[in-house]
Amino acid sequence: MKKIAVFCASSPKVPEVYFDAARRVSAALVQSGYGIIYGGGAIGLMGAVADEALKHNGVVTGIIPRFMVDVEWEHKDVEDMIHVETMHKRKELMVQGSSGILALPGGTGTLEELFEVMSLKKLGQYPHPIVVLNTNGYYDGMLQQTQKMVEEQFMRPIHNEMWTIVERPEDVVAAIERARPWDEDAIRFAGV
């Protein structure tokens, strides 16, 4: 079974529009036969993704650092839960076990995870699709920044094609499935 690693917020205080999108995309992934790997949390968008996948009898793997277990952030209903020592190990296992990445809105942790995978893809170390769900225009600022990176020649134009941006949860599965393999020429000279 192909599994999609989902990076997203753990905050329970974000607007409902993000929870709705998280639930819809989780259901769409499960209904399309994908398993989900996520950060193991029980609240925020992480909890919504796991809850919805479980509701649809989906395969869910959580990966959570022990310090988060100690403060009771772990999702108790996810049976396939892996405890690790560090945030770095969590991210490493999520990426290694995935056949694609999906970034939902999130904070600094989500951005850090997303940018590391984008860097890996740029260097030819992650060949799978990266999809960003731009709910409510959340990632518009990031897209402006990556475009500025291209304009100022910190990246080549092809590097802005490493990921797919979608606006609706219903478009995520199609974006994953139509993603083309990362072009060899794109990684031959990963710099400018």
UniProtKB/TrEMBL annotation:
GO biological process, one term: cytokinin biosynthetic process
Reactions this protein catalyses: AMP + H2O = D-ribose 5-phosphate + adenine
InterPro entries per the UniProt record, alphabetical: LOG, LOG_fam
Leading EC class: hydrolase
Sequence intervals crossing the membrane: none
Gene Ontology terms: cellular component: cytosol
Origin superkingdom: Bacteria
Alphabetical UniProt keywords: Cytokinin biosynthesis, Hydrolase
Keyword Transcription recorded: no
Gene Ontology molecular function, alphabetical: AMP nucleosidase activity
Documented EC number(s): 3.2.2.n1
Gene3D superfamilies cross-referenced by the UniProt entry: 3.40.50.450
Family classification: Belongs to the LOG family.
Identification of the protein by name: Cytokinin riboside 5'-monophosphate phosphoribohydrolase
